[in-house]
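Field notebook, page 268. I keep forgetting to write these up properly, so this time I am using the form the group agreed on. The chain and the ligand, nicotinamide-adenine-dinucleotide, are recorded exactly as supplied. Prediction of the bound pose follows.
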Amino acid sequence: MASQVTFIGAGNMASAIFGGMIDNGYPATAITATSPDAERLTALAAERGIHTTDDNAAAVAEADVVVLAVKPQIMREVCEGLRDAVQARRPLIVSVAAGLTAETLDTWLGGDLAVVRCMPNTPSLVGAGASGLYANARVSDAQRELATTLLEAVGIVEWVDDEALLEAVTAVSGSGPAYFFLVFEALEEAGVRLGLPAATARRLALQTGLGAATMAQRSEHDPAQLRRNVMSPGGTTERAIHSLEDGGLRELFADATEACAARAREMA
Ligand code: NAD
């Protein structure tokens, strides 16, 4: 029998995850989502066939996994409202909320719980996410596998064994989509300066990013080797890469990710 999974919150991130689970064959009847938004719940029940309710505590009563997917600002209040139901049932807690530690969530929920904390990213909304996961000491191997199944429904999963490393995950993949959006903007602008229509430059830039990532994921070579493979001596790519290296691209990424991780530490 499939584990019963309850999502507290039925917004973008929750619906991306349960939508991906259902698309991957997870039974919709084993999924419950809660929200105060009655219209949203009616639509989800009709479209996806999941159970829905506006009663968070009731939704936890038979859950094996509770996914906390509300905004961080209201998480404390939501957790405190769930405390009795969670302590009675003791399900695995999975949080996708930015910046709240496993310890904090555990305390708000009454303590002594198995908690998995995730750092997903926005491409999860199109099934191409990258999530970093951390499990506290009470999480069993079977629960780890379950958490992996949930987050793999929206992309790839990497586990870290030290919660502080989620700050590094934030710096690489959590905030990472925006770095690539900036690169796409810059490449489009550069193409326009060289005479291309903006729409053409954008399509070429985006497809090139997608193609490079796909090629790097499928290749047996690392990205450095793939880069060298397209840099013929004295050729066009070599000129461009030297210009980026001379301009300090690597140092810029090191500084940007350090600043990002430092900010994540401040917010935790
Ligand atoms: P969202 O606003 O789309 O969804 C929040 C949901 O919570 C809504 O369905 C809302 O009706 C519901 N809600 C509000 N009050 C509630 C209550 N008292 N009880 C139950 N449900 C309630 O937000 P989102 O983008 O899905 O973000 C949810 C979490 O995911 C956040 O903690 C955020 O940090 C995390 N996250 C989101 C993304 C992303 O790409 N959207 C990326 C990383 C992390």
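OBSERVATIONS:
- Strands lie at 5-8, 31-34, 51-53, 65-68, 92-95, 115-119, 129-135, 155-159.
- The radius of gyration is 21 Å.
FOLLOW-UP: compare against the apo run.
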